[in-house]
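Meet my pick.
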Amino acid sequence: MTQDTATQEDQSKAAERRAKGEFVRGVSGFRHAIGDPDFPPEPGRYHLFVALNCPWCHRATLARSVLGLTGSISMDVAFPNRTGEDDPAGPNLWEFTPDRIASLTGDTLPECTPETGTGQGLRLAKQIYQHEGSDEQSLPVLYDKITQRIVNNESAEILRMLDAHADALRGEATSNPTLFPDDPALQSAITDLNERIYTTINNGAYKAGFSSDQKVYATAFAAYFDTLKYLNALLSDGRAFLTGDRFTEADLRLFPTLFRHDPVYYLRMKLNGAKIVDFPHLWRWLCRVYALEGVAEAGSLVHCRQGYFGRSWNNVVPLGPTHPMPYPEAYRHPELARSG
Protein backbone atom coordinates (compact mmCIF):
# COMPACT_ATOMS: atom_id res chain seq x y z
CA MET A 1 0.00 0.00 0.00
CA THR A 2 1.14 3.52 -0.73
CA GLN A 3 1.91 6.01 1.97
CA ASP A 4 -1.11 8.29 2.38
CA THR A 5 0.12 11.56 0.87
CA ALA A 6 -3.31 13.08 0.36
CA THR A 7 -4.79 15.82 2.47
CA GLN A 8 -8.39 14.70 2.83
CA GLU A 9 -11.46 16.42 4.09
CA ASP A 10 -12.86 15.50 7.49
CA GLN A 11 -15.78 13.15 6.82
CA SER A 12 -17.46 13.52 10.21
CA LYS A 13 -21.17 14.28 9.87
CA ALA A 14 -20.66 14.56 6.11
CA ALA A 15 -24.28 13.76 5.24
CA GLU A 16 -25.57 16.31 7.74
CA ARG A 17 -23.18 18.98 6.44
CA ARG A 18 -24.16 18.31 2.82
CA ALA A 19 -27.83 18.57 3.78
CA LYS A 20 -27.13 22.04 5.18
CA GLY A 21 -25.54 23.14 1.91
CA GLU A 22 -21.84 22.51 2.45
CA PHE A 23 -19.74 20.89 -0.28
CA VAL A 24 -17.93 17.91 1.31
CA ARG A 25 -15.47 16.02 -0.86
CA GLY A 26 -15.50 12.24 -0.51
CA VAL A 27 -12.53 9.90 -0.05
CA SER A 28 -11.06 7.83 -2.87
CA GLY A 29 -11.40 4.07 -2.43
CA PHE A 30 -8.50 2.57 -4.45
CA ARG A 31 -5.20 3.15 -2.69
CA HIS A 32 -2.72 0.60 -4.06
CA ALA A 33 0.66 1.80 -5.29
CA ILE A 34 3.10 1.23 -8.07
CA GLY A 35 5.85 -0.65 -6.24
CA ASP A 36 3.44 -2.97 -4.42
CA PRO A 37 4.10 -6.66 -5.23
CA ASP A 38 1.14 -6.75 -7.65
CA PHE A 39 2.10 -3.53 -9.39
CA PRO A 40 5.80 -3.42 -10.35
CA PRO A 41 7.16 -0.25 -12.02
CA GLU A 42 7.50 -1.15 -15.69
CA PRO A 43 7.39 0.91 -18.89
CA GLY A 44 4.16 0.58 -20.89
CA ARG A 45 2.24 -1.19 -18.15
CA TYR A 46 0.13 1.64 -16.73
CA HIS A 47 -2.66 3.79 -18.09
CA LEU A 48 -4.40 6.96 -16.95
CA PHE A 49 -8.07 7.77 -17.37
CA VAL A 50 -8.59 11.52 -17.05
CA ALA A 51 -10.78 14.51 -17.89
CA LEU A 52 -8.81 17.62 -18.82
CA ASN A 53 -11.28 19.99 -17.17
CA CYS A 54 -10.85 18.27 -13.79
CA PRO A 55 -8.14 19.88 -11.60
CA TRP A 56 -7.47 16.59 -9.79
CA CYS A 57 -6.85 14.90 -13.14
CA HIS A 58 -4.66 17.86 -14.08
CA ARG A 59 -2.31 16.89 -11.26
CA ALA A 60 -1.83 13.48 -12.86
CA THR A 61 -1.43 14.78 -16.42
CA LEU A 62 1.11 17.34 -15.22
CA ALA A 63 3.14 14.68 -13.40
CA ARG A 64 3.03 12.40 -16.46
CA SER A 65 4.22 15.26 -18.65
CA VAL A 66 6.91 16.99 -16.58
CA LEU A 67 8.39 13.64 -15.49
CA GLY A 68 8.81 12.54 -19.10
CA LEU A 69 6.28 9.70 -18.90
CA THR A 70 4.05 10.49 -21.88
CA GLY A 71 5.70 7.75 -23.92
CA SER A 72 5.47 5.07 -21.22
CA ILE A 73 2.09 5.72 -19.57
CA SER A 74 -0.83 5.71 -22.02
CA MET A 75 -3.89 7.89 -21.41
CA ASP A 76 -7.56 8.24 -22.33
CA VAL A 77 -9.40 11.57 -22.10
CA ALA A 78 -13.10 11.83 -21.26
CA PHE A 79 -15.43 14.47 -22.67
CA PRO A 80 -15.52 17.44 -20.27
CA ASN A 81 -19.30 17.32 -19.75
CA ARG A 82 -20.77 14.25 -18.13
CA THR A 83 -23.86 12.37 -19.24
CA GLY A 84 -27.24 14.10 -19.12
CA GLU A 85 -30.56 13.21 -17.56
CA ASP A 86 -31.64 11.43 -20.75
CA ASP A 87 -28.68 9.03 -20.84
CA PRO A 88 -29.75 5.37 -20.47
CA ALA A 89 -26.95 4.81 -17.94
CA GLY A 90 -27.97 7.81 -15.87
CA PRO A 91 -26.78 11.40 -15.43
CA ASN A 92 -23.48 12.88 -14.23
CA LEU A 93 -21.18 10.11 -15.49
CA TRP A 94 -17.79 10.57 -17.15
CA GLU A 95 -17.85 9.17 -20.68
CA PHE A 96 -15.25 8.47 -23.36
CA THR A 97 -17.05 9.78 -26.44
CA PRO A 98 -14.70 11.48 -28.91
CA ASP A 99 -17.58 12.14 -31.32
CA ARG A 100 -19.54 14.30 -28.85
CA ILE A 101 -19.97 17.94 -29.87
CA ALA A 102 -18.83 20.73 -27.53
CA SER A 103 -21.22 23.67 -27.31
CA LEU A 104 -18.28 26.07 -26.97
CA THR A 105 -16.68 25.13 -30.31
CA GLY A 106 -19.59 23.53 -32.20
CA ASP A 107 -17.27 20.64 -32.98
CA THR A 108 -15.65 17.59 -31.43
CA LEU A 109 -12.69 18.12 -29.10
CA PRO A 110 -9.53 16.60 -30.58
CA GLU A 111 -8.07 15.64 -27.20
CA CYS A 112 -11.02 13.35 -26.36
CA THR A 113 -10.47 9.64 -26.94
CA PRO A 114 -12.33 6.35 -26.83
CA GLU A 115 -11.57 4.07 -23.90
CA THR A 116 -8.48 2.01 -24.75
CA GLY A 117 -6.96 1.12 -21.39
CA THR A 118 -9.06 -1.94 -20.58
CA GLY A 119 -9.13 -3.27 -24.14
CA GLN A 120 -12.93 -3.48 -23.91
CA GLY A 121 -13.89 -0.13 -25.42
CA LEU A 122 -16.01 0.88 -22.44
CA ARG A 123 -18.00 4.09 -22.70
CA LEU A 124 -18.21 5.10 -19.04
CA ALA A 125 -15.60 5.48 -16.32
CA LYS A 126 -18.19 3.92 -14.02
CA GLN A 127 -17.90 0.66 -15.96
CA ILE A 128 -14.19 0.44 -15.17
CA TYR A 129 -15.08 0.52 -11.49
CA GLN A 130 -17.96 -1.92 -11.89
CA HIS A 131 -15.54 -4.58 -13.14
CA GLU A 132 -14.01 -4.45 -9.65
CA GLY A 133 -17.32 -4.41 -7.82
CA SER A 134 -17.11 -0.73 -6.93
CA ASP A 135 -19.78 1.94 -7.28
CA GLU A 136 -17.23 4.76 -7.55
CA GLN A 137 -17.10 6.77 -10.76
CA SER A 138 -14.48 9.47 -10.28
CA LEU A 139 -11.44 10.41 -12.34
CA PRO A 140 -8.45 10.23 -12.44
CA VAL A 141 -7.86 6.50 -12.45
CA LEU A 142 -4.44 4.86 -12.64
CA TYR A 143 -4.95 1.45 -14.25
CA ASP A 144 -2.73 -1.62 -14.68
CA LYS A 145 -3.20 -3.02 -18.19
CA ILE A 146 -1.50 -6.33 -17.28
CA THR A 147 -3.63 -7.32 -14.29
CA GLN A 148 -6.61 -5.28 -15.57
CA ARG A 149 -7.04 -3.68 -12.18
CA ILE A 150 -7.38 -0.17 -10.82
CA VAL A 151 -4.23 0.77 -8.95
CA ASN A 152 -5.24 4.09 -7.44
CA ASN A 153 -7.78 6.89 -7.86
CA GLU A 154 -6.35 9.47 -5.44
CA SER A 155 -4.54 12.14 -7.45
CA ALA A 156 -2.08 13.14 -4.71
CA GLU A 157 -0.87 9.57 -4.41
CA ILE A 158 -0.76 9.02 -8.17
CA LEU A 159 1.57 11.96 -8.74
CA ARG A 160 3.77 10.92 -5.80
CA MET A 161 4.19 7.35 -7.08
CA LEU A 162 4.87 8.52 -10.64
CA ASP A 163 7.61 10.73 -9.22
CA ALA A 164 9.07 7.98 -7.01
CA HIS A 165 9.26 5.43 -9.86
CA ALA A 166 9.77 7.74 -12.83
CA ASP A 167 13.07 6.20 -14.00
CA ALA A 168 11.72 2.64 -13.85
CA LEU A 169 8.49 3.66 -15.57
CA ARG A 170 10.42 5.40 -18.34
CA GLY A 171 12.93 2.56 -18.58
CA GLU A 172 15.78 5.08 -18.36
CA ALA A 173 17.16 7.83 -16.17
CA THR A 174 16.76 11.42 -17.41
CA SER A 175 17.25 14.96 -16.18
CA ASN A 176 13.53 15.48 -15.51
CA PRO A 177 12.76 17.15 -12.17
CA THR A 178 12.14 15.29 -8.93
CA LEU A 179 8.93 16.59 -7.42
CA PHE A 180 9.53 15.40 -3.85
CA PRO A 181 13.33 15.51 -3.38
CA ASP A 182 15.09 13.42 -0.76
CA ASP A 183 15.76 16.38 1.52
CA PRO A 184 13.96 16.37 4.90
CA ALA A 185 13.80 20.15 5.20
CA LEU A 186 12.46 20.54 1.68
CA GLN A 187 9.99 17.69 2.16
CA SER A 188 8.69 19.37 5.31
CA ALA A 189 8.25 22.68 3.47
CA ILE A 190 6.42 20.93 0.60
CA THR A 191 4.15 19.06 3.01
CA ASP A 192 3.22 22.24 4.87
CA LEU A 193 2.44 24.04 1.62
CA ASN A 194 0.44 21.07 0.31
CA GLU A 195 -1.73 21.11 3.42
CA ARG A 196 -2.59 24.79 3.16
CA ILE A 197 -2.97 24.78 -0.62
CA TYR A 198 -5.30 21.78 -0.60
CA THR A 199 -7.51 23.08 2.21
CA THR A 200 -7.87 26.70 1.12
CA ILE A 201 -7.13 26.68 -2.63
CA ASN A 202 -7.68 23.30 -4.31
CA ASN A 203 -10.65 22.16 -2.25
CA GLY A 204 -11.39 25.68 -1.07
CA ALA A 205 -12.42 26.69 -4.60
CA TYR A 206 -15.06 23.96 -4.55
CA LYS A 207 -16.19 24.95 -1.06
CA ALA A 208 -16.80 28.43 -2.39
CA GLY A 209 -18.34 27.47 -5.71
CA PHE A 210 -20.44 24.43 -4.88
CA SER A 211 -21.65 25.05 -1.33
CA SER A 212 -25.12 26.55 -1.07
CA ASP A 213 -24.67 28.00 2.43
CA GLN A 214 -23.66 31.68 2.46
CA LYS A 215 -21.52 31.38 5.58
CA VAL A 216 -19.63 28.35 4.23
CA TYR A 217 -19.05 30.24 0.99
CA ALA A 218 -17.87 33.39 2.80
CA THR A 219 -15.44 31.41 4.94
CA ALA A 220 -14.02 29.59 1.91
CA PHE A 221 -13.80 32.86 -0.05
CA ALA A 222 -11.82 34.57 2.72
CA ALA A 223 -9.46 31.61 3.21
CA TYR A 224 -8.83 31.34 -0.54
CA PHE A 225 -7.77 34.97 -0.92
CA ASP A 226 -5.82 34.98 2.34
CA THR A 227 -3.71 32.15 0.94
CA LEU A 228 -3.26 33.92 -2.40
CA LYS A 229 -1.92 36.93 -0.49
CA TYR A 230 0.35 34.65 1.56
CA LEU A 231 1.75 32.93 -1.55
CA ASN A 232 2.25 36.25 -3.33
CA ALA A 233 4.26 37.50 -0.34
CA LEU A 234 6.22 34.23 -0.22
CA LEU A 235 7.29 34.72 -3.83
CA SER A 236 8.15 38.39 -3.33
CA ASP A 237 11.72 37.58 -2.24
CA GLY A 238 12.63 36.69 -5.82
CA ARG A 239 12.43 32.91 -5.54
CA ALA A 240 11.41 31.17 -8.76
CA PHE A 241 9.13 28.59 -7.16
CA LEU A 242 7.28 28.10 -3.89
CA THR A 243 10.14 26.41 -2.02
CA GLY A 244 13.08 28.10 -3.78
CA ASP A 245 14.81 27.66 -7.10
CA ARG A 246 13.33 24.29 -8.09
CA PHE A 247 9.88 23.21 -9.24
CA THR A 248 8.39 20.75 -6.75
CA GLU A 249 5.18 18.93 -5.92
CA ALA A 250 3.90 22.02 -4.09
CA ASP A 251 4.06 24.04 -7.32
CA LEU A 252 2.43 21.24 -9.28
CA ARG A 253 -0.46 20.96 -6.84
CA LEU A 254 -1.10 24.71 -6.81
CA PHE A 255 -0.95 25.17 -10.57
CA PRO A 256 -4.24 23.49 -11.68
CA THR A 257 -6.39 25.78 -9.53
CA LEU A 258 -4.61 29.01 -10.43
CA PHE A 259 -4.56 28.03 -14.12
CA ARG A 260 -8.37 27.99 -13.90
CA HIS A 261 -8.87 31.03 -11.68
CA ASP A 262 -8.98 34.04 -14.02
CA PRO A 263 -10.84 32.43 -16.97
CA VAL A 264 -13.15 30.09 -15.02
CA TYR A 265 -13.18 30.17 -11.22
CA TYR A 266 -13.42 33.98 -10.91
CA LEU A 267 -16.94 33.64 -12.31
CA ARG A 268 -18.01 30.01 -11.92
CA MET A 269 -16.77 29.52 -8.35
CA LYS A 270 -17.81 33.04 -7.27
CA LEU A 271 -14.15 33.82 -6.44
CA ASN A 272 -14.36 37.35 -7.78
CA GLY A 273 -12.31 39.06 -5.11
CA ALA A 274 -9.39 39.47 -7.51
CA LYS A 275 -7.69 37.77 -10.43
CA ILE A 276 -4.27 36.15 -10.31
CA VAL A 277 -2.99 38.89 -12.61
CA ASP A 278 -3.68 41.24 -9.67
CA PHE A 279 -1.05 39.40 -7.59
CA PRO A 280 2.19 40.30 -9.40
CA HIS A 281 4.55 37.74 -7.89
CA LEU A 282 1.98 34.96 -8.14
CA TRP A 283 1.16 35.90 -11.74
CA ARG A 284 4.81 35.75 -12.73
CA TRP A 285 5.08 32.37 -10.96
CA LEU A 286 2.04 31.14 -12.92
CA CYS A 287 3.63 32.22 -16.19
CA ARG A 288 6.95 30.65 -15.17
CA VAL A 289 5.31 27.29 -14.49
CA TYR A 290 3.26 27.46 -17.68
CA ALA A 291 6.51 27.92 -19.62
CA LEU A 292 8.05 24.71 -18.25
CA GLU A 293 8.44 21.91 -20.76
CA GLY A 294 5.28 19.81 -20.96
CA VAL A 295 3.06 22.00 -18.77
CA ALA A 296 1.01 23.75 -21.46
CA GLU A 297 0.29 20.43 -23.18
CA ALA A 298 -0.95 18.81 -19.96
CA GLY A 299 -4.13 20.90 -19.67
CA SER A 300 -6.81 22.62 -21.73
CA LEU A 301 -8.82 25.75 -20.97
CA VAL A 302 -11.24 24.79 -23.75
CA HIS A 303 -12.05 21.65 -21.78
CA CYS A 304 -12.21 23.67 -18.55
CA ARG A 305 -14.63 26.22 -19.98
CA GLN A 306 -16.76 23.53 -21.55
CA GLY A 307 -16.74 21.36 -18.45
CA TYR A 308 -17.56 24.01 -15.86
CA PHE A 309 -20.00 26.16 -17.83
CA GLY A 310 -21.38 23.63 -20.31
CA ARG A 311 -23.26 21.88 -17.52
CA SER A 312 -24.75 25.06 -16.06
CA TRP A 313 -28.48 25.76 -16.20
CA ASN A 314 -28.49 27.06 -19.78
CA ASN A 315 -25.35 25.31 -21.12
CA VAL A 316 -23.93 28.60 -22.45
CA VAL A 317 -20.15 28.98 -22.10
CA PRO A 318 -18.75 32.50 -21.52
CA LEU A 319 -16.29 33.59 -24.21
CA GLY A 320 -14.03 35.79 -22.04
CA PRO A 321 -12.03 37.06 -20.47
CA THR A 322 -10.23 38.82 -23.30
CA HIS A 323 -8.51 41.49 -21.18
CA PRO A 324 -5.63 42.01 -20.73
CA MET A 325 -5.54 39.35 -23.48
CA PRO A 326 -7.22 35.99 -24.12
CA TYR A 327 -6.27 32.99 -22.01
CA PRO A 328 -4.16 30.85 -22.06
CA GLU A 329 -2.11 33.18 -24.27
CA ALA A 330 -1.92 35.55 -21.29
CA TYR A 331 0.18 32.98 -19.40
CA ARG A 332 3.00 33.62 -21.84
CA HIS A 333 3.18 37.26 -20.72
CA PRO A 334 4.50 37.74 -17.18
CA GLU A 335 4.71 41.48 -17.83
CA LEU A 336 0.89 41.68 -17.61
CA ALA A 337 1.10 41.63 -13.80
CA ARG A 338 -0.84 44.72 -12.76
CA SER A 339 1.39 46.07 -10.04
CA GLY A 340 4.64 45.48 -8.20
Observations:
- The chain has a mean pLDDT of 93.
- The CA atoms of residues 261 and 275 lie 7 Å apart.
- The first helix runs from residue 14 to 19.
- Residues 16-170 form a domain with the Glutaredoxin fold (CATH 3.40.30.10).
